[in-house]
Write a structure and sequence with these properties.
Length: about 100
Amino acid sequence: MQDRSRNEAVRQATAMFKQGIFPGAVAGAVLGLAPGILLILVLTGDTYHIGGAEVLGFIIMCIAVGALVGAVIGGYLAVVAGTVKRSLVSRRILRG
């Protein structure tokens, strides 16, 4: 009986994690754009001469890393929020 409830909790946590992946990835990609642009601004000083491919590569790399980190953080935050909500509903503090 305990294994069944544990499996159900894991299934619910997985579903909540999947719901938080996309919003987290979008937010991470947007936030990842800023370091990419700042890096380009620093590298385009008087002593460095970089081409368009390097600029595009740096920005894409920063967006991709931001999206990956954001997806993981967004998934975990969705699990935490869902668990807190489920706990409050079960204690009748919040109406579901």
